[in-house]
Amino acid sequence: MADATVESAASQTQPTPDASLPSQFGLIAGQGDFPLLIAGAARSNGVKVIGFAIKGFASNEIENCCDQVIWLELGQLQRAIDLMHENGIKAVTMAGRVPHTSIFQYRHLDRRAMKLLAKCLTRKADALLGTVVAEFQTEGIEVMDSSLFLKNLMPAAGMLTSARALTAAEQEDVDFGYPLAKAVAGLDIGQTIVVKEKMVVAVEGAEGTDECIKRAGQLAGSHCVVVKVSKPAQDMRFDIPVIGPGTIKSMIEAQATVLTLSARECLVFHRQQLVQDAEAAGIAIIAVGNSASDK
């Protein structure tokens, strides 16, 4: 999604300087705007950002957002760690999508990455990323909350759109789908499900959210409800659910009418554009809280 229209992180986040922040950190960057926004917000806080951009996934725009960028092949774990030590990096964050199917492309995995992969009992996202986090920790490198600089992009519970209220049928599908989506996410299968008339139409797999939404439209037609949630015990260091204008574009293509997300645990990028596009298409967006503290 990264292009010339990417909004500046400073305008989106309005950061407040924090003396507890590291003076510099490493940013492991995959696809999308997430790494770009983190880098911009961190630098506006006076934090130096050294990007470790994954070839074939990170946008070239990352070069304009970081103080320094090092390009790496996916799986060059030892090289990444060596470079972090050389640059005095004691903290990193991981942001941006790397499709799970990439794990089957073994040609660039170094020996350390192969050993790490062998330790994983499953190929689920949490297992893989958790193992990477533990490996960094053995090297004295802390993996930080990847939403550290972007907390105010996580909406509180309530309607994000104001053009219309949910219909009674849509509200029933939200109430039906939200706990099911949480259960699926808790199994580390996917963070998105699509429902219609109290039936699960599609569950996100390796294809990602957008393709899940489009598949639901092909299977069930119009008026589906999309539910994207955080995991019940979401590790904020990785795999945080992200919503952006691309999500709305996929919903328009599928003729879906409602987007439901987890309050205060889902990042919403380019919110003004996203809401404008949704309202123009008759799509309602609602953030659902898990407790009173989410409201």
Structure, explained:
The protein is an alpha/beta fold. The protein folds into 2 domains: 9-143, Rossmann fold; 154-294, Cytidine Deaminase, domain 2. The chain is built from 9 helices and 13 strands. The strands form 3 sheets. Strands 6-13-11-9-7-8 form a 6-stranded mixed sheet, sandwiched between helices. Strands 3-2-1-4-5 form a 5-stranded parallel sheet, with helices on both faces. Helix 7 (209-220) runs parallel beside helix 8 (245-254) and helix 8 (245-254) runs parallel beside helix 9 (271-280). The two termini are 30 Å apart.
Task: Provide a concise account of the structure shown.
This protein has 295 residues and is an alpha/beta fold. The protein has helices at 9-13, 34-44, 77-86, 111-119, 125-138, 168-186, 209-220, 245-254, 271-280, and strands at 24-29, 48-54, 68-72, 91-95, 142-143, 158-159, 192-196, 199-203, 225-228, 242-243, 258-262, 267-268, 284-288. The chain folds into 2 domains: 9-143, 3-Layer(aba) Sandwich (Rossmann fold); 154-294, Cytidine Deaminase, domain 2.
